[in-house]
């Protein structure tokens, strides 16, 4: 009897407490839901949004905004300047080396995740004659469209095509709140850096300064950089040098051959780079800046691609580009093929853009060098590149698979009468569609912008740089302990298929 009464009392208490418990749990659930929603929204905003800052894809308009901000004091940097104004003493080099060793040891034992990522870059604060003065020179003269090179190419357009030095630098020095990339950070102290960026506009100076004035500026820049303790410590192996036009910095770059060069290609013909100056293990290939507008999703869906194969450009080129004239002679008059001599200015740009957006395939033969800007014009236009350049090296090929967006044809096959047109007509509609879909996906990898976008060329540059870091540090440390006069030389030897040497370089 007592047991039954005890059970009844317990049930009564339990029934009175149940609503309170349920209500409390409900409130706790709502609180947790609100917390997770707020956190996810905050993270999403931090990762993807740059408040009140429009994305600019035009070099000229982006430069206008950049220089306007500098002129008004908006680009002043909070970073201290660790660079030296006079030649670094041996003691300075030893102190920096010790600080770097301590920093790397701290990162190594502080946790594996922090050891490599993100890439830490120290940006040299070079005198304005190497940086802002040259940007102002371009800005104040870019409307002079009559300024042409010896082969008839518009000078300012060439500078735009090779303006990778501007896009990378503008992103690196932008205020952190205006940056989207998280795989690279600018560091304030040299001892914290993985890499050192040299912000010298070598292409602008080459094209817009008088010859002797340009060479003198090159020598000054060379001395300024080589005087830095970080350069002396590593021999320049961890320094990034943008020399994207093959003519730029040519008179003095042999003294900086250990640096990581940012290039348009390797140019194995030997016309632009001396043996041992450039190779894939050390340097990085970056895409040209496209000369045509991006064909967006609406453009791609509306495009009526009635031309089988399109080419517009200079029909005669030097060195490795001699195949271009032979191809033109072979393809001229073929059904479904459009071959046009290129012209400069807005009219030429419009004609090239229209031709690429109304064609299925775009011919990309070698020019004066194995690569040309035309390849990237085709990609952003949704036109499948047909690459006829046996020695071509491609940007970010360790990250991107170009077989998904392009066709590679050997020069010997392309030169056979009727072979190329017959080959293209044999490509199935399914394969064409797949490549067009992939072109739409890949276009962002070749579209420079400010602020730099995730998966854009600036982003992929630092992803590729990260992959080089362990090897860079290996060679720095190895050079520091190697016995002088030792025959134990570490070299990179690239061989062509027949087994002969293509290049041999000491890193």
Plain-language structure description:
With 507 residues, the chain is of the alpha/beta class. It has two domains: 59-285, no CATH class; 297-446, Rossmann fold (3-Layer(aba) Sandwich). The chain is built from 18 helices and 13 strands. The chain has helices at 2-48, 59-71, 90-109, 113-116, 132-141, 155-161, 164-172, 202-208, 211-226, 229-234, 297-302, 322-331, 345-357, 374-381, 411-414, 419-425, 429-442, 457-481, and strands at 119-123, 184-186, 195-197, 239-242, 260-263, 284-285, 307-313, 337-341, 359-365, 384-388, 407-408, 491-495, 501-506. The protein has a six-stranded parallel sheet with strand order 2-1-3-4-5-6. A five-stranded parallel sheet has the order 8-7-9-10-11, sandwiched between helices. Strand 12 and strand 13 (501-506) form a beta hairpin. Helix 2 crosses helix 5 and helix 8 (202-208) runs antiparallel to helix 9. It is globular and about 70 Å long. The model is unreliable at 1-7, 9-16, 34-50 and 493-507 (pLDDT under 50). The chain crosses the membrane at residues 20-38. It is a single-pass type II membrane protein. One of its GO terms (cellular component) is Golgi membrane.
């Amino acid at each position: 009897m007592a047991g039954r009464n005890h059970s009844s009392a317990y049930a009564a208490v339990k029934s009175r407490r149940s609503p309170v418990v349920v209500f409390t749990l409900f409130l706790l659930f709502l609180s947790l839901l609100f917390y997770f929603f707020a956190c996810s929204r905050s993270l999403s905003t931090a990762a993807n949004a740059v408040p009140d800052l429009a994305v600019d894809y035009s070099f000229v308009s982006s430069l206008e905004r950049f220089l306007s901000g500098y002129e008004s004091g908006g680009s002043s940097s909070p970073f201290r300047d660790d660079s030296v104004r006079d030649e670094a003493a041996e003691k300075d080099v030893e102190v920096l080396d010790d600080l770097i060793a301590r920093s790397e040891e701290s990162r190594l034992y502080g946790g594996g995740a922090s050891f490599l990522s993100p890439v830490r870059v120290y940006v040299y604060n070079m005198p304005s004659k190497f940086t802002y003065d040259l940007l102002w020179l371009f800005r104040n003269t870019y409307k002079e469209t009559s300024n042409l090179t010896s082969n008839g190419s518009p000078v300012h357009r060439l500078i735009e095509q090779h303006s990778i030095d501007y896009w990378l630098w503008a992103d690196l020095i932008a205020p952190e709140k205006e940056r989207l990339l998280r795989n690279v950070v600018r560091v304030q102290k040299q001892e914290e850096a993985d890499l050192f960026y040299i912000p010298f506009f070598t292409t602008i100076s080459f094209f817009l300064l008088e010859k002797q004035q340009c060479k003198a500026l090159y020598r000054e820049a060379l001395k300024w950089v080589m005087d830095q303790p970080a350069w002396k410590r590593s021999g320049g192996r961890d320094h990034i040098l943008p020399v994207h036009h093959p003519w730029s910095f040519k008179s003095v770059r042999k003294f900086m051959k250990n640096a990581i060069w940012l290039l348009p290609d390797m140019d194995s013909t030997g016309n632009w780079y001396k043996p041992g100056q450039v190779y894939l293990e050390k340097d990085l290939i970056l895409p040209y800046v496209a000369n045509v507008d991006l064909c967006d999703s609406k453009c791609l869906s509306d495009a009526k691609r009635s031309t089988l194969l399109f080419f517009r450009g200079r029909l005669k080129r030097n060195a490795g580009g001699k195949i271009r004239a032979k191809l033109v002679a072979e393809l001229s008059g073929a059904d479904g093929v459009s071959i046009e001599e290129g012209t400069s200015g807005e009219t030429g740009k419009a004609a090239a853009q229209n031709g690429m957006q109304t064609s299925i395939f775009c011919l990309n033969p070698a020019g004066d060098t194995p690569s040309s800007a035309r390849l990237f014009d085709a990609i952003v236009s949704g036109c499948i590149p047909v690459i006829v350049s046996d020695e071509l090296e491609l940007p970010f090929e360790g990250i991107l698979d170009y077989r998904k967006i392009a066709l590679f044809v050997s020069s010997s096959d392309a030169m056979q009468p009727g072979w190329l047109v017959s080959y293209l007509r044999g490509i199935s509609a399914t394969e064409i569609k797949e490549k067009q879909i992939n072109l739409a996906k890949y276009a962002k990898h070749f579209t420079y912008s400010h602020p730099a976008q995730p998966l854009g060329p600036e982003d992929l540059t630092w992803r590729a740089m990260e992959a080089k870091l362990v090897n860079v540090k290996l060679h720095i440390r190895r050079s520091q302990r190697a016995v002088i006069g030792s025959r134990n030389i570490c070299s990179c030897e690239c061989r062509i298929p027949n087994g002969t040497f293509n290049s041999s370089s000491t890193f």
